[in-house]
Amino acid sequence: MKHRLKHIVFFIAIVLHPALASVAGEPDGYLIADGNTAGTMQLIVNRGYALDSPDQSIRHANKPFQHVQQIWDADLKKYVFQFFIHAKLDDDRGLVNITDRQRNELKTWAKSPAFMVGQEGDIMVIKWKFKLPEGMLTTKKFCHVHQLKALDNKESTADVGMPIITFTCCTVGSGNKQEFQVRWQDRNNNYKTFYLARLDLSQFLGMWVEAEERIKCGANGSYSLTLRNLKTGNVMLDMPEQNLDMWRTDCAGVRPKWGIYRNIGENRSMENSLRDEELRFADFYVGKIVSTKVSTLESVRNDSDAIYTVSGESVLKQQEGQVYISQGQKKLSLK
Q: Is 199 exposed, middle or buried (0-12, 13-18, 19+ CB in 10 A)?
């Protein structure tokens, strides 16, 4: 049974953008596998993301290979994205002058919707799931499976060479100890690496992990992170908010990357120490926290939803005790 409430005065302090109810076919921050491997690239583009892969790079020129596919995952009981990297074949986007690294990364970019790229003062929320392969090989050089990086400006003059945050898998010490590291690069200290967390890599291998980051973008920014084992439900890392510089000079924003980006030695000298790897990812989300104040509310309620129209301009949806705001829409119809 429906009823209508009008002209209620109240305030909303923090709301999550974008709304779960977006216009059909438009990006809403989510990228979820649909099982159509052949259509993976189009799905990525349609959802506002982009891909840096070696599908048709130098060694794949005559025999292209799809480096991000979709497969059924028995643990999650759903389709997920599988990222491939080949130690002796793949390079960094086909760039002939780069011979010491290889890359297969998903990202947001300059053509992503504005809410998927952080600007100064923005608070970003980034979520995803990932599974690193059992027996994954690492070296003492970097192997990033996630990055927060600055986006270059139109003049290509921004400070974007070094990442801000990375999830890095590497070998440490004199033996074969492997670590999963959360690193922050301090631009005001010659880009010195600081370790926000150092965990044993073995607890990640073969396990689905859910990650959630919250980033305040800017020189006076902040960063927090939660990692949770999806099988056990145990929290692997609960990093409270750290006050950090989360910006780069003259950049056009801050954006995330996921996949595998690793060093293979000068002129591929370390490729024999590595192997082909297959990493799994699922349920990407990128959004912003925004603040708003509401003075006039009109509510239309049915048995399961409450839709609020504020001054005829913004649309709010309350779901599971949270309030979401949709920008760019003036009306929302319940069906």
A: middle
Q: Which two tokens stand for residue 168?
A: 């890095």
What is the 3-state secondary structure of the chain?
Answer: CCEEEECCCCCEEEEEECCCCCCCCCCCCEECCCCCHHHHHHHHHHCCCEEECCCCCHHHCCCCCCCEEEEEECCCCEEEEEEEECCCCCCCCCCCCCCCEEEEEEECCCCCCHHHCECCCCEEEEEEEEEECCCCCCCCCCEEEEEEEECCCCCCCCCCCCCCEEEEEEEECCCCEEEEEEEEEEHHHCCEEEEEEEEEHHHCECCEEEEEEEEECEEEEEEEEEEEECCCCCEEEEEEEEEEEECCCCCCCEEEEEEEEEECCHHHCCHHHCCCEEEEEEEEEEEEEEEECCCCEEEEECCCCEEEEECCCEEEEEECCEEEEECCCCCCCCC
Q: Is the pLDDT of residue 2 over 60?
A: no
Global confidence as pTM: 0.83
Task: Tell me how far CA of residue 198 lies from CA of 84, 169, 236, 258, in angstroms.
Answer: 25, 10, 11, 19
Distance CA 244, CA 63 (A): 45
CA-CA-CA-CA dihedral for 272, 273, 278, 280, to nearest 10: -150
pLDDT digits (tens, 9 = 90+) for 79-121: 999 999 999 999 999 999 999 999 999 999 999 999 999 999 9
Task: Using the structure block, give the residue that is written with the tokens 């996921």.
Answer: 258
Q: What does the chain come to in residues?
A: 335
| Integer CA distances (angstroms), 44 to 91, 106, 223, 289, in order | 21, 9, 26, 23
Mean pLDDT over all residues of the chain?
A: 85
